[in-house]
Amino acid sequence: MAEEVLIWQALNRALDEVMAADEDVFILGEDVGLYGGSYRVTEGLYAKYGEWRVRDTPISEDSFTGLGVGAALMGLRPVVEIMTINFALLALDAIINMAAKVPFMAGGRLPMGLTIRTPGGVAKQLAAQHSQRLEHTLMNVPGLRIVVPATPQDAYWQLKQAVLSDEPVIVLEHELLYFHKGPLDPAIPPPPPHRAVVRRPGRDLTLIAYSKMAVLAGQAAERLAAQGIEAEVIDLRSLSPIDWQTCADSVARTHRVLIVEEDCRFAGAGAEIAAGLTERCFTRLEAAPMRLAGLDMPTPYNGTLEAQTIPQVDDIVAAAHRLVKEGS
Amino acid sequence: MDRDQALAFLHDMLLGRRFEERCAEEYMKGNIAGFLHLYPGEEAVAVGVIHACETSDYIVSTYREHVHALVRGVPAGEVMAELFGKRCGCSRGMGGSMHLFDPQRRFMGGYAIVGETYPVAIGLGYGIAMKDLPEAVICFFGDGAVNQGTFHESLNMAALWKLPVLFVCENNQYAIGTEIHRHSAVPEVYKRAAAYRIPAERVDGMDVLKVYRATEHALQQIRAGSGPQLLECLTYRFRGHSMADPGHYRPPVEVKAHQQTDPLELALRELSLVYPTPEQIAAGPDALLKLRQYCFDQGHLHEEGFKELEQQVQDEVEAAVQFALESPQPTLDDAWQALYCNRGDEILI
């Protein structure tokens, strides 16, 4: 039966359940234990499972992420929390050179049940070093899976699936979604972790988004409906791999696609999605795929400017109007 | 050390030497490509350390790891086939010289980014400690790797949580071409362990018995639960950093100094058959010859026996080359399977 929970609570529940079921699961990261996690995701787990399974680490991102790689090689299921994705830059050797490469370099003879959870995105005036979105960097690495949950249900499902997977999975959590409320029913069987979902059916255009932008796309679609435009909203849920079929099926119905991303526009996730859909549905499109993305600029501290660097609901509505007019 | 053990050491050192020299030949023929870092001169470290381990211990190694793998028991044919990029290689042709893996023998890989072995080793050590198992982890690294951040990060965590890891520095005194006094403010690597209260020792890495005993002692302490230890083995590579490196940066005066400190080995050269070459002896004290002499002195071996052992090793290496030559090439499908080896039956849409 569904109950209303916050995303951090859904993540917490997922961790608690997998840790209770499997002694090979352990958590490590900065302030995940005694402190309870900087966004409360690991709250209560230290008291319940002890310090060996919920390990507070020193501030050594590269080595504690690499520790997760080493533990995964012996079949364990480490869940590494990197406090923010900005700090993951210090761990890119462990993520890209090790987690994504070792099973392959070993000829396919080693497991890599490593999960890396990391909050990111533009939050509230955290300035340029704490507001990055780095999905494009990770998407370009074969061997990694990347999930981007936007609801409590998906956060619960996808984190559990990540921990139980033998592949390295990056769970990109959005800092502004942790206190986002929604239904969670643990009894519903999950779809595959990379399956996209149509959040709202529509006929005039397709909005493709993920993470916090999927939430904004839903809000924009409500506004558009009131203005006579029916937007179909797809929440990608996964950036690697991408569920092309669900996207292409939608575009075949609507013939127009607007991709919304918070990450910088240049060489970003949206570029890949636009190119992939152009290749797959060129003849079905009545207008070029449109991208709405973050500006190619470090995030300013000033709150007004900060908001101007990333898509807002108004921007999505305006872009949808432009796209629907094009080619008609 | 009893006869069987001494001869096993000598066999593995000879195998390591002959295998690597054969690799150089195959590289010149074009059967081996890419970066090829050879081990001659450093055999006492691999043999001394790995013979002191249990088969249930994990080994994490660097890109100069062929001999570590051989001593660990990875079949020479599978190592050579990997260097040839073949499907029967221990990494199925996906890893190559710098990435040998053998999960069954707990040989957890060669890592080609300097300083990566520490976090992998503490990860294995963490798992062992969390599950309260009796195993230990050997973490090899070179002197060039001690200035990476991961050295300090990982030693700190290993000490903090008393992880069962033996950090083994193969100090061949050069970070590629930069001599240790030019890259390290504290060139005595073992002293750095004090910063993390990790017991550490420096041993003569050209003497296999000393390396073996020091490793044995360190592993006893580790298994008793005292936490990590560090062993610095002073050694010297006879060749350049890799096949692409003629090693001109090492001054002749240094090579001469090694010659002068090693009259016994020079004398032994007169008795020596194939191993090592005069150039190798000229480059420094040779652990292999020391061990051979030990075996002679102890009556474990006579000259005829040594010749037989050499012939046996020669045959093993030739068989390995033959195995590599005959192994099929991997296909692109094999590569995809290696990439998605952990995906299971999940169907991607």
Automatic annotation (TrEMBL), chain A:
The keyword rRNA-binding does not apply. InterPro entries: THDP-binding, Transketo_C/PFOR_II, Transketolase-like_Pyr-bd, Transketolase_C. The keyword Oxidoreductase applies. Gene3D superfamilies: 3.40.50.920, 3.40.50.970. The branched-chain alpha-keto dehydrogenase complex catalyzes the overall conversion of alpha-keto acids to acyl-CoA and CO(2). It contains multiple copies of three enzymatic components: branched-chain alpha-keto acid decarboxylase (E1), lipoamide acyltransferase (E2) and lipoamide dehydrogenase (E3). NCBIfam families: PRK09212.1. This is 2-oxoisovalerate dehydrogenase subunit beta.
From TrEMBL, chain B:
Keywords: Oxidoreductase, Pyruvate, Thiamine pyrophosphate. GO terms for molecular function: pyruvate dehydrogenase (acetyl-transferring) activity. Its EC number is 1.2.4.1. It holds the Pfam family E1_dh. GO terms for biological process: pyruvate decarboxylation to acetyl-CoA. InterPro entries: DH_E1, PDH_E1_Alpha_Subunit, THDP-binding. Residues 13-266 form the Dehydrogenase E1 component domain. Its cofactor is thiamine diphosphate. This is Pyruvate dehydrogenase E1 component alpha subunit. It comes from Methylomarinovum caldicuralii.
